């Protein structure tokens, strides 16, 4: 049986969804975040970086969401439920698998950090300067690039039911985290194709079972 090391409100839900989609047995080991919102040191006993998700199967330990999804696709996906086998679908799958953490999530993390900086303890006369600098970075650097990313996703989903084409795949699981992150801070009214995709995700039995075990994350 697999053991999914799950940090509350984290990327682990992607892996629970994949395990449910493949009908693989697993147990969830939950870790609570510390007061500063970081992972507990006990996770480092499982993997040196102490990040979640981490998936264990007997003596095998795999970390990083994308690597775990690829591991499951390579070792436990004889029916191509996670990784499509058609040339076009496979090309789309690979692109969005890398896009999620390569192009999308760094911008969201930067946005979160620059929004938090002015709220941290600092001398009162520094706070307006910090806020002005952070707002400048957000408005001139982060948001223009994030808007381009969202426009690209919307355009793709206007002509694709799922990220790899006509069937749900690991690419949808990988992309679910950043899209849920965006949806946690704004509505998707201006992105109807993305909103429809998210509604389809939430209708998936495997997704609902995963949410029942680890919850639906709201990263921001």
TrEMBL record:
Highest taxon listed in the record's lineage: Bacteria
Annotated ranges, domain GST N-terminal: 1-80
InterPro entries: Glutathione-S-Trfase_C_sf, Glutathione_S-Trfase, Glutathione_S-Trfase_N, GST_C, Thioredoxin-like_sf
Cross-referenced Gene3D superfamilies: 1.20.1050.10, Glutaredoxin (3.40.30.10)
CDD domains the UniProt entry points to: GST_C_GTT1_like (cd03189), GST_N_GTT1_like (cd03046)
Family: Belongs to the GST superfamily.
Name the record gives this protein: Glutathione S-transferase
Organism: Marinomonas ostreistagni
């Amino acid at each position: 049986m697999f053991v999914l090391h799950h940090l509350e409100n984290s990327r682990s839900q992607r892996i629970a969804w994949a395990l449910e989609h493949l009908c693989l047995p697993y147990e969830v080991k939950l870790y609570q975040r510390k007061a500063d919102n970081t992972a507990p040191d006990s996770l480092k006993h499982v993997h040196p970086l102490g990040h979640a998700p981490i998936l264990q199967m007997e003596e095998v330990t795999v970390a990083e969401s994308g690597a775990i999804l690829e591991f499951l696709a390579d070792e436990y996906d004889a029916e191509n439920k996670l990784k499509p086998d058609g040339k076009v679908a496979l090309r789309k799958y690979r692109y969005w698998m890398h896009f999620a953490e390569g192009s999308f999530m760094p911008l969201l993390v930067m946005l979160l950090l620059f929004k938090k900086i002015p709220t941290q303890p600092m001398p009162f006369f520094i706070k307006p300067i910090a806020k002005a600098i952070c707002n400048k970075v957000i408005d001139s650097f982060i948001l223009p690039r994030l808007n381009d990313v969202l426009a690209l996703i919307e355009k793709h989903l206007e002509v694709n039911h799922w990220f790899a084409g006509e069937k749900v795949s690991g690419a949808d699981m990988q992309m679910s985290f950043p899209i849920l992150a965006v949806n946690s801070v704004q509505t998707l009214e201006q992105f109807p194709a993305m909103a429809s995709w998210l509604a389809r995700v939430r209708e998936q039995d495997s997704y609902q079972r995963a949410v029942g075990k680890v919850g639906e994350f709201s990263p921001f």
